[in-house]
Queue: 4 jobs
Job 1
Amino acid sequence: MSRDTTARLHIDWTRCDGHGSCAELLPGLLGVDDFGYPVARSGERDPAVPRRDRDAAQHAVRNCPVMALRLYRVDHSGTRR
Amino acid sequence: MTSARRLLQDQDRHGPLPALRLDALLDAVSESGLTGRGGGGFPTATKVRAVASRPRKPVVVGNGLEGEPLSSKDAVLLGHNPHLVLDGLDVVARALRARRAVLAVGADLDPGPVVEAARGRRIEVVTVEGGFVAGQESALVNQLDGRPPVPSDPFTRVTESGIAGRPTLVLNVETLAHLALVVRHGAEWFRQVGTRDEPGTSLFTISGAVRRPGVVEVPRGTSIREVLAPAEPDPSSAVLVGGYHGAWVTDLDVPLTARGLKPFRAAVGAGVLHVLGAGVCPLVFAAEVVDYLAGESAAQCGPCLNGLPHLAGLLHRLASGDRDPALPAETSRMARLVTGRGACAHPDGSARFVASTLAVFAEHVGAHLQGWCPSETRSAAS
Amino acid sequence: MTPHVTGPLTSALWDLGRGTGVVALAMFTLSLVLGIVARSGRRVPGLGRFGISDLHRTAALTGTGLIVLHVATLLLDPFAQLRLVDLLVPFLATYRPLWLGLGTLAVDLLVVVTAASLLRHRIGPKLFRAVHWATYALWPMALLHALRAGTNSGDLWFRGLAVVCVASVVTAAAWRLAPSFAERGWSRRTRRTA
């Protein structure tokens, strides 16, 4: 597996309720679909978070009322926060 | 040439398999090139290694749920040769020093032969609730662990933490049967049939417009036409490869390998081959399939819970003669929308089936939009 | 009951003790109402949904901080006759034990709710939500404590504040229970069992 050190935003779909704060805080990264759920604009499953959006992403993680978000980085052995 | 009847051959019990140490088992399985037969096609050695690398003693689970309605290979295997499956489960559990070894079977299966064969072994045979999604790896683990039979967020893999928080190895029963044979006869023997990239044999369930539906065992890499031959298929334009999450293939001479199926965006999956009858409208068939898939959603994830019924609705409109020219594009859009946005591959697989239907039967779709159907009947005969 | 002032510092402590309590009540009222707005998924122009959640949290934490001060000053204030045990075990105080005891209970609940909130990413959404329901018990306790153990209940400004607090919570709670609330997600999910 290649080493990929970009920070990524993971959505726990079993928790996501379509509340929408994340899309408000990260409008460049996330849109909203027909049913109110977040869509990664890049089409990735866990969209990469550019450095300039790092703070907003952390805000989104804290703000999600059902704790459906997490930020992580992949290192050479596995996943890590 | 070695016979292809390996799993379905009548076998006397040869006595217990040699207890292999983990490294010996990993070597044998790795060299054999065995991949998962439950649909994922993942290299088995990699999965075993992932669980072995964790500090806690693992739990090993044989997955015999077979939630796909078109598939019956696991049921046939368990009825015919349960000892082989249990041998495989046994040898893996011992090599991993597993805390528990469980064989999970669906409620439809008669557990008698399996329970009988499990006597005296350190294996629990558990009957679990069925359903399309219940056989998914994390859903099965959840059910065995006393939770609802729905998938978990894949961020934490079951190989890291599964039943009782232990690393859990879930292998399809056919995979376990092949594994038992690899341990008994060696990796080289396993590779005597099949292709270099996809060695060994596979079980296929044949259904649809065929005179003799059922389960066959063939070397991997066999063409669709050759696999279907004993089932006596009607002449057909397309075969659904991979079940309700699969894709249509129109060239029957294509070998059943990843490379051969790639142009059709299909995969061998769990070995389901469904022949489309000449009089069956593929759009009506597809609409009914997606109805079923929508109903089988675990109803946890918004895009799947909302998107699949939407997809079913769109297909029904297409099938029933709605001539809105925007329908195909809207259906494609909805299929793309649900892909990759759920805790499991249910929406992805459903979207793949829909996209394949629209692509392979594009002319048929065109005809419907003009108000007529090329097929003779309008109901999906099963 | 008029306070018996013995020195300027004591008077200051007493003022601070009461002041922090009153403002904390206002904060918790605000937080509760905002919590209901957040749950509704409605967007408020200018704030967005994330802004509502942020405010809800800020108000709650501010209230909590004020309660820490409230308790600390009252512990230090000889006039209040508050002992450490009164922080944990309710109804043991000499002065209006029932109403002060409600304050004690509220503080105990507040500790649990705050801990669960700060650790919510560790304990998971189900446990967090279960504990968070306690806020619906916490607010009435705080209100009754303020009305009956507090010494400003006779003052007009306090009565006005109390009326505003009660009115907002009653309105918000009624809205929460109304069918038109249409909360996102939870009520619409049917969890299947195969």
Job 2
Amino acid sequence: MNTEPENFEALQKLVALKRHEVPPPGYFDRLPGEILSRIRAEAGQTRPAEAPAGWFQQLWALFDARPILAGAFGVTVCGLVLGGVIYSQQTEANAFAAEPNLNSKWVMPTELAGASIPVNPAASQPGLPDATPQNGLVPPGESLFNQVQILSQQPSTATVNFNLSGN
Amino acid sequence: MSADKQARESQVSPQNASGGKAAAGEIPETDLVQRARKGDLEAYDGLIRRYQERIYATVYHMTSNHEDANDLTQEAFIKAFQALKTFKGGSSFYTWVYRIAVNKTLNFLKQQKNRTHFSLNDMDYHAEHDPDLVALISDKTPRRDVALTELQEKLNAAMQKLSEQHRLVVTLHDVQGLSHDEIAEIMDCNVGTVRSRLFYARQQLQAELADYLK
């Protein structure tokens, strides 16, 4: 933009007319008293709540005096939230990749399904065939529920005769 | 000497107020600020009396309404007192309180976007004897029929046509007499922005008031 001095001399003299606009007589004698009265009144009203909210009021006053600080604070908070989300996602991904049991070929069944479910039904029920490998490990990616389905497809029923003595 | 009397005597002329430096016999601004921070209302009274005219004038020239200027000036000084503990002293108290008043005024004007009610103050008796104004409304001007009050109204109307930022720069520089650096600090922008805004605002005013400037 061209900001070379133009002939604004007459305009400046005209604008200076505004310096002669003055408030009613005695206004500036009364103004300080009115301001101090309001400060005293507000201090009396806010004193009980001042202690717990002191830091917040100070922060609020600072933001009110410097709106750019309020903007910077908002940007910082957004940045921290965004950074936190990204960091947590990365941490989760790293933890998943670094899990040794998931990278290995075999997975301990107790780690997959918890100890409360019997992984090898044959171990507790002698009538059922042993569907798991001998070392007690389950191939990764194979669900325990699949094992149950496999077991149900296999003939595992025994013939029972109910001979009642009266018939 | 009582603190109140000291505070009253600490009033300075607008020219001295700019830098916040104390002339001979005045209480330094920093002393008044220190005392006011501890809750000394008499010291704060001294600060108010030192800067009230300039703060009021700036707000008044922005709003063109005495009642609004009165409210905003009071609120600015009250806010400044409440926030005095956060005042670090990086700038002068004068610049700091100016900034509070300017921000309050700009927020007020944004809320009152469509307001057109003016309440102009009367001219002081010096106006009719101001040689520059006498020249403007003398027989040599094409608008010699114009009265001083009409000129005042036209000037205010032209000022109100400027955006808030441009009006503020003109008010602070051409009416209040602040330097570009001081305005940049108050408006939280760089000096180049102040200069370009001032240039643009003067161009706008010159176009609006062309009839009175020939």
Job 3
Amino acid sequence: MSRIVGIDLGTTNSLIAYMDDGAPRVIPNPDGVTKVPSIVGMTDNGLIVGDPAKAHLTRDPARTIYSVKRFMGKGLADVSDELKYFPYTLHEKNGVIRIEIGEKTYSPPQVSAMILKELKRRAEEFLKEDISKAVITVPAYFNDSQRQATKDAGMIAGLEVLRIINEPTAAALAYGLQKKTQGIIAIYDLGGGTFDISILKLKDGIFEVLATNGDTHLGGDDFDQRLIDVVVQEITDTQGINVQEQPDLVQVIRMEAERAKVRLSEDTETTLVVELPNGKYEKTLTREAVESLVMDLVERTLAPCRSALKDAGLQAHQIDEVVLVGGSTRMPLVRSKVEELFGTQPHSELNPDEVVALGAAVQADILGGHNKEILLLDVTPLSLGIETMGGVMSALIRRNTTIPTSAKEMFTTYVDGQTSVDIHILQGERELVKDNRSLARFQLKMPPLPAGVPRVEVTFLIDANGILHVTARDIRTSEAQSVQVKPSHGLSDDEVEGMIRDSFKFAEEDIKTRQVIEARTEANAIIVATQKALTRASNLISDKEKSGIQRVMQQLGETQKGDDHRAIRAGIAEAEKETHHLAEVLMDATLKEALESKNVSEFVK
Amino acid sequence: MVQLTMPELSEDLFPMTTHHHHHHEAVAGSRELPMARSMCWHCQSEVTGEYLCGQCVKVQPLSKELDYFACFKIPRLLNIDEQQLEQTYHELSRTFHPDFYSTKDESEKTISLGNSAFLNSAYRTLKDPIQRVEYLIRLEAGAVKDIRSNPPADLFEEILELQEDMESFRNLSSDADSTEQANLRQKLQREREHLEARQAEMEKALRAKYHEWDTLQSQNADPGEARDQKNAVLRSMQEILSNRTYICNMVSELFETTG
């Protein structure tokens, strides 16, 4: 059985973790950095993902995609309020958002797949083996379409997604495993773009989720936006610059606002600086002032907490421990509000950025059959139902029902000879169809008989991923009927297939870009090192040799600007040959120096 | 998106819970063995283990006729040991949960999914005292026959009056004389407290019936006579339950109206 990794596919940052001898570990890059910014940049030379893409964001905002998680499983109408915050053009095809970059369009699962591939590559490099199986986390409050979109992203990235697991539950796994906790715990998870609250009962290795609630459109990004709005307004008013017309400036402000917010978790005062074409904009911010800017947003998290408590049949004081997850819980304001609500000091011993990925690795270990002690029993966050007469939703499976779970419904005809019945599947807590999420539609075939005689039983099953499966059976004949379900906001199987094929094309471009970037970096390093060496060795080599080296370096400098990594490599080889003698001379000189200094120091001793 | 088809998920392999009372085909009386088949679906040998084949250790589908009480190996009583129930739930979850079948073949995955879904419904139903008795009534009385579709006579007047008061309160809300609104709100809140008290009374009465039922179940009386007595208890529980439903609905409507 090949290794299964755990992935936290976040709104702002993503991480990948694995199980190392019984303990979950996050995989760092060679520099020891564990977080991969969930940002994808489309450059002329192909794709860049993560930190390089973050740098790209201020240079080329129109071709850099961030916070794509907010678009997963959504239609255009769902995000209309947020459109103004995104510098790229969005449109919709078959109920799914498409992001327009240049002449190409990308679905959100495709963009997420690019991030997943980067994580996969990182893990493969670190573990020195192929990775093809993963557990991916999603916000607990994600609906069916959003979960399916995440699964599609995994497929497009060449990963078999063995399980979609809820972020707060993953955090509970990591936390419970480390602390050996028993009792009732609440996980308060405030990330970059989403908020979740989950209440669990931990007993003898069973992690039973009692209730979950949340808001899939509330997170640190929204805090940043409040600050951005203030800064943009001030710059527009005082500097006579129309900031909104300069997307690159907006992105600079976005980054500075985020940094200032982060600093204010430690300091009580900070200065936000933005470089403008005609000077500098500076603003002193106190923690208090920023807290009052976002107070209502933080308070918005409390209502879902109360609902979750109610659904779990518990009072706030019955919660034994509260665990904080997600970068936004570093804010002192968030901590004090949580403490106020639950009447207990929240825990944050585990790194709130990493705990979700760690939990995903624990779940991967369970699925791999390596851990029989722990079992996670999760719930479906939203009620599932169907449309009935008068545009009303009739619930079949209530929210907070432990999954897997199933429900059956019998359907018949109203008119003699009617041959089909249309069924509309919904998710949500409201009474009217229009206020709930449309998941899918399908047509049930009926035998042409008098009204009321046909009887077709439909089974709605929610699996352990929180994803719905529909089957139908004619009661009279006992025959199974195939159901062609058309998702309201999802990619069709054909589309996913197409995107998998495209992703191989991207992969080729990807590798090319990577090779060019690597060769270029190496060439630059050689040029810099050679210049230094030439200064040091000015008296040690001939002028002829010197000018020869200068010429080769100049050529290399030209070649590395191009996109041909083979040419750059050839230039590097040429440079190495040309500087071989110089290196030897320098080595001898250094050796001599070292020996002399050693003698001196020994003499002194 | 919805996964298109799962052909293996057929009724022939395992049972699934019926959420909808009207379609429930209850099994009265007889005590089935937990397993539907005495032969393993995989290796065709006789199943000697309880849930797993003794020969090839494949998980076996739960019987179609299995009821929730039998699934938890407890008699059809209404006062049950909730801690024991939880413990059995945890044990069975460790046997059936899909997490432990992730590396197994498709058939086993499907069986584990079905068994798990059934187990979860069984636990959810039995854990809650109200759902437990509703389920028992369906099980013991066959299809639900005499559900009352009208509110009970003594509640009828009260409900009508309340509906009117709520209607006028809603109409006031927009542009209202605040004292009138406050008075009406107070009245509605009093009514709600009154109804909540009645609900508590009903639940107490129901609990007394639980005891009556359990006593009858444990006696070795003449089957015919016991059946009549049992049916009488079931009917009175059903009556309390349907009255309770009206009260519950009114209480939550009052909550929504007055905030």
Job 4
Amino acid sequence: MSVGIWTFSFEDKEISAVREAAADVEELGFDTLWFGEAMGREAYTHAGVLLAATRTLRVATGIANIARRDPLAAAGAEQLLNRAYPGRFVHGLGGQRVGANPVNAVRDYLAAMDEALPGPRPQRLLAALGPRMLELSRDNADGAHPYFVPVEHTALARETLGPKAFLAVEQAVVLDGSRGHELAREHVAFYAKNAPHQQLNLRRLGFTDHDLSTISDRLVDAIVAYRGDQSVADRVQAHLDAGADHVCLQVITDDDRIPLPEWRHLATLVH
Amino acid sequence: MDLIEETRTKLGPVGVWLPSAPLAPPADVELWATRRIEELGYASVWSGEGGRAREAFALNGTLLASTGRIVLGTGIANLWARPARTMQGGGTTLAEAHPGRFVLGVGIGHSFQAAKAGSDYRPMEQARAYLSAMDEAATENPPRVAFPRVLAAVGPRMLELSGELADGAHPFAQPFEHTPYAREILGPDKLLIPTQSVLLGDREQARANHRQTIAMMRRVDIPHYLMGWKRLGYTDSDIDDVSDRLVDGLTAWGDEEAVVKRVRDLLDAGADHVLVSPMGDSLESIVEQLERLAPALAEVTR
């Protein structure tokens, strides 16, 4: 069972705490650590810090946004990290806020990377939700990294990707028993209200305007595993059964600390 | 102590600029060279991104993680490679991960790089807007560890901007006279970190090397450096003939003592930190010269 950790919580933390947390994730037996590129830190530099702080852990950008640097720079960075830390850097790439046609933008970007710098490169996974981006993940990359998706999406994604492409699915979890539903609902509301690409994907999967506007229980249950330990283990298994190669767990809490106790707990659940 | 004084203290008088971008050495050779230069006692190593896929932040992050003391500088990180927010994020992350060991050199690059990024080329306006956008990003996400930012500058207006919106200037490929000229414009409170071409060899070798470089600058149409020379009084015929005067202005050639003298003169003329850059067609040959120079340069103080 390939299970990783997905986190936004490193963003504003002391780098020493981030290094220690990465080493803990490795020690806990997770095989990959995913982090988002949101505000303060630059994705490849951040990846380098995490790789230097660990020995065997795979470190994945979830994702590096193609709007943030030109394809030459991305190609140089991925090759360098791949050489410096062989087999340990996973290059998650995505095209948010890149204009009207993200599929074309990502396709051109990947082509420009290859043209700029041929040679050995790390695994490349695309942030993909819709069928065309999934096809691009299959044809022009090594697989896909869907974020904020129910299990039925994983089955559809596997169908489009075919048997060979790698499918790494992010799964949100809440371990706070007393406030599970509340925190799960807040998490879902954030994306359902603010992220057009997520809204589109949810509609494609059959969620209605009503589901989205009220943040229905059906929607919350589909996106977040929050009903106790068994629900988390079951959800991971369901993604794997539906065709995921890897599931990375994002712990949702009511604060912005690095959720180390929760990661420790997850380690006992999934190993 | 403010950031500029801290940086001066940390850097001391002598560092190294390596042409790793044009030479494109294998990653392990570049790491070996960086470690060796650290061992030899130089305070810093700088390199650029060039036109190839060489990403400054991933690269310097790896080099910093694999060395212990030496300061790494970008000479330069090209602003056409990434938006200002990403540049600021890269500097923030490296400074935090390796406090006091990173200097960000940013530059506007050349018109062909702008064209490749799908933009026209208005260097002054674009450099100003870019540095301001970096500052905005820094206001939104203040770095925990401050890092110095210097601007690639040759002409008077870019030097002024280096003083106004950056912590100083990082002039490249300029003759000796540029240093007092740049210090005059920057005033005393800003960093001035020039490169100095060096050759343990004779004037004819130096001339041959510059002849090639000048041909390349003309071929790919990068006029800033040549314009800098002319501004300081070198003529077209100095450049066409690669005159003795030009060779001597651009290069510290001769023995170890000649190099030390030039470095001392630059420091006296206003440089804070001189980046010696031996001529050579491989990092190995460059490091060999740095090995020979190290004992003499270790005696230089500011």
